[in-house]
């Protein structure tokens, strides 16, 4: 068996006729399978949707049938009130009406008939009282206890009892369809209330009658079974669902509905249409709630029919369709195979000749026993001619190949050397171009910086002069605003220092500024004062934890610039709202010795990706539209000038931590001069 399979696999892989058979059959198979899939899909969808629509329509018919039966019940009760004996007793002897009315239940095909005097109106619910006083007849469903049933008729409690299967419990409540008709005297006053109806518990004739109306003959698939059920709460009190669906024995009275239906219909008050497991088999089912006079759900009305006969018909159709498709495949396969066999014999002979030539044998195709002028015969002759020419050219190629190998080897070695040299030149050219672009930007920035610094100095001098004049004029009154004036002088000094630095940046060389021993915590507090002043309109909270004790050698103004830059970056990263944390601590080495101080600026913003972290300290790189891309570059240059570094730790969506490490003793080479190129300006 395995050898046979292997042979056919090899034939399909190697022989043209079988490959042609496969190539022609595969599209047919795929098309047919697609048609089967689409047919099955649409059939299932249409059949199932149609089944659900039928179930919904059946439930609507059952609902209207119940409404008609209730209307018929009310009409029978109305006939009683309009009968000659009733009217005679009403006019002549009302004392006998109560007993006489109770005896008329059987004659009018009702389970109970009772007449109440107008004084008993208070015993009815408010909704019923209002309608009775308006003279409106009413029919509704109601659930009554055994005592309430006994009040209506002494036989009703016994007839209403339903034993629950598999629960050893007896249900004594009854579900009734009740009609009330008010009787008024000649003065228009309510005199009597005629009360009558039917008991729905164990009412087999009622559900069978509704079933015959809903499921007429020949409306269901052969072997299917239409059923109707009345529920009191979740208990079947009247049904023609059999206890054994295969034998159609008994009635499933006293069984409960499934939890899914109970949840949807009884609790949520929704109509439920779907397949459901009804006692012992699957049915295409529809349920709707039954409500009493107050709109409370007291039961359900159900219609459904067996699912399996419908599925059986569907599967039969699928099998018939599959058999038809297989027959089409077999017939088309035979036709293709016979046509391919006669067509590809000459091609197989050509293939044998080609295989022999590949093995080094000198073979030719020759005659193919085909009609003169046949395309394959002409092809065979042309192939033989080509083989002759190929043999001649092979000899010439062998002679030229030896010479060509030497030339190729020499040229390849030379080309490899030139390629390496060219790649190195391209790399140097790219570096030079990048450096040139950066230098051009820096040159332009230097000119702008010098102009801006000169322009800032003039209004700063005016501000300083006016402040000093105010102090002179106010005299002793300046004590009240001494702190504010002090802050103005400090900020004017800071503006002068910044503009002086900018002017020095624009000149040839570096920034000359004083580096002194400083404690970080006061600089942090000063930077936070500036940041808070500039972010009052933002929803920002700034928390500090300043534990650094070590003093470090830094330039106070440059360090203030670095801290303000990092804090503002953190605020912008949080979209100008959130909590910004600033912490300081001593920088310890592995042995626990203090080697400097460190500052952490922690935000809870959007975070920085790994590829951006590698570029954020490059000049002119920014992710903000309003940014210049110089803040972090300048800050890194300043910190590097003190011999320190800035380290970034970030996580997307959670925030970033910028840590500034400052050594206790500034780097002697960079202590005084901070080169512009290292600062990234």
Topology (SSEs and partners):
Elements: H1 2-14, H2 16-82, H3 84-92, H4 97-102, E1 112-117, H5 126-133, E2 138-144, H6 146-152, H7 156-160, E3 162-164, E4 169-171, E5 174-184, E6 190-199, H8 204-214, E7 226-232, E8 235-239, H9 259-267, E9 272-278, E10 281-291, E11 297-306, H10 308-358, H11 375-474, H12 482-506, E12 511-512, E13 516-519, H13 520-534, E14 539-546, E15 551-554, H14 556-573, E16 577-588, E17 594-603, H15 610-613, H16 631-641, E18 645-651, E19 655-663, E20 673-674, H17 676-679
Parallel strand pairs: 14-16
Antiparallel strand pairs: 1-6, 2-5, 3-4, 5-6, 7-8, 7-11, 9-10, 10-11, 12-20, 13-15, 16-17, 17-19, 18-19
Describe the structure.
β9 and β10 (281-291) form a beta hairpin. The protein has helices at residues 2-14, 16-82, 84-92, 97-102, 126-133, 146-152, 156-160, 204-214, 259-267, 308-358, 375-474, 482-506, 520-534, 556-573, 610-613, 631-641, 676-679; strands at 112-117, 138-144, 162-164, 169-171, 174-184, 190-199, 226-232, 235-239, 272-278, 281-291, 297-306, 511-512, 516-519, 539-546, 551-554, 577-588, 594-603, 645-651, 655-663, 673-674. Mean pLDDT is 82; it is low at 508-512 and 670-681. The chain has a five-stranded antiparallel β-sheet. Strands 14-16-17-19-18 form a five-stranded mixed β-sheet, covered by helices on one side. The protein starts with a helix and ends with a helix. α13 crosses α14 (556-573) and α14 packs antiparallel against α16. By secondary structure, the chain is of the alpha+beta class. Keywords: Cell membrane, Coiled coil, Kinase, Membrane, Phosphoprotein, Transferase, Transmembrane, Transmembrane helix. This is histidine kinase. Its EC number is 2.7.13.3. It is a multi-pass membrane protein. It comes from Photobacterium pectinilyticum.
């Amino acid at each position: 068996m395995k050898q046979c399979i292997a042979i056919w696999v090899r034939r399909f892989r190697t022989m043209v006729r079988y490959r042609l058979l496969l190539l022609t059959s595969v599209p047919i198979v795929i098309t047919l399978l697609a048609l089967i899939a689409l047919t099955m899909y649409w059939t299932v969808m249409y059949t199932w949707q149609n089944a659900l629509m039928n179930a919904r329509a059946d439930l609507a018919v059952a609902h209207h049938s119940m409404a008609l039966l209730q209307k018929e019940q009310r009409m029978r009760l109305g006939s009683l009130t309009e009968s000659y004996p009733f009217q005679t007793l009403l006019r002549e002897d009302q004392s006998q009406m109560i007993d006489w009315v109770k005896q008329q239940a059987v004659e009018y095909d009702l389970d109970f008939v009772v007449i109440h005097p107008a004084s008993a109106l208070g015993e009815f619910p408010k909704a019923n009282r209002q309608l009775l006083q308006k003279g409106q007849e009413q029919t509704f469903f109601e659930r009554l206890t055994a005592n309430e049933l006994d009040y209506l008729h002494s036989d009703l409690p016994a007839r209403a009892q339903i034993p629950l299967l598999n629960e050893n419990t007896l249900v004594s409540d009854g579900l009734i369809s009740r009609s009330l008709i008010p009787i008024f005297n000649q003065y228009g006053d309510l005199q009597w209330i005629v009360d009558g109806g039917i008991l729905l518990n164990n009412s087999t004739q009622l559900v069978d009658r509704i079933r015959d109306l809903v499921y007429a003959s020949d409306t269901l698939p052969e072997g299917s079974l239409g059923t109707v059920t009345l529920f009191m709460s979740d208990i079947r009190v009247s049904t023609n669902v059999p206890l054994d669906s295969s034998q159609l024995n008994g009635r499933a009275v006293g069984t409960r509905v499934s939890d899914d239906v109970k949840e949807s219909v009884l609790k949520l008050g929704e109509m439920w249409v779907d397949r459901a497991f009804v006692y012992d088999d699957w049915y295409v089912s529809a349920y709707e709630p039954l409500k009493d006079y107050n709109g409370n759900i007291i039961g359900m009305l159900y219609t459904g029919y067996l699912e399996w006969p419908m599925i059986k018909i569907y599967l039969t159709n699928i099998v018939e369709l599959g058999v038809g498709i297989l027959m089409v495949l077999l017939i088309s396969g035979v036709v293709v195979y016979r046509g391919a066999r006669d067509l590809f014999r000459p091609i197989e002979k050509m293939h044998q000749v080609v295989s022999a030539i590949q093995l080094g044998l000198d073979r030719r195709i020759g005659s193919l026993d085909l009609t003169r002028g046949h395309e394959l015969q002409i092809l065979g002759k042309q192939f033989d001619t080509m083989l002759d020419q190929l043999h001649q050219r092979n000899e010439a190629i062998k002679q030229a190949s030896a010479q060509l190998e030497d030339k190729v080897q020499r040229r390849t070695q030379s080309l490899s050397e030139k390629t390496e040299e060219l790649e190195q030149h391209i790399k140097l050219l790219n570096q030079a171009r990048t450096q040139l672009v950066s230098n051009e930007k820096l040159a332009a920035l230097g000119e702008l910086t010098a102009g801006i610094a000169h322009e800032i100095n003039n209004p700063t001098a005016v501000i300083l002069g006016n402040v000093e004049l105010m102090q002179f004029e106010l005299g002793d009154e300046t004590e009240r605003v001494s702190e504010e004036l002090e802050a103005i002088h400090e900020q004017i000094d800071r503006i002068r220092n910044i503009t002086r630095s900018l002017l020095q940046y624009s000149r040839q060389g570096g920034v000359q500024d004083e580096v002194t021993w400083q404690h970080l915590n006061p600089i942090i507090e000063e930077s936070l004062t500036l940041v808070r002043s500039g972010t009052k309109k933002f929803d920002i909270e700034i928390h500090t934890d300043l534990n650094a004790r070590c003093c470090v050698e830094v330039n106070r103004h440059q360090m203030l610039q670095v801290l303000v830059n990092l804090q503002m970056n953190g605020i912008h990263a949080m979209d100008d709202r959130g909590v910004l944390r600033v912490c300081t601590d001593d920088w310890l080495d592995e042995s626990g010795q203090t080697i400097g101080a460190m500052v952490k600026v922690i935000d809870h913003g959007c975070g920085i990706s790994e590829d951006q972290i590698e570029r954020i300290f490059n000049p002119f790189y920014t992710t903000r539209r309003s940014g210049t891309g110089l803040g972090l570059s300048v800050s890194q240059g300043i910190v590097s000038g003190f011999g320190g570094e800035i380290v970034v730790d970030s996580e997307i969506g959670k925030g970033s931590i910028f840590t500034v490490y400052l050594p206790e003793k500034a780097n002697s080479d960079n202590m005084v001069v901070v080169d512009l190129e290292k600062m990234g300006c």
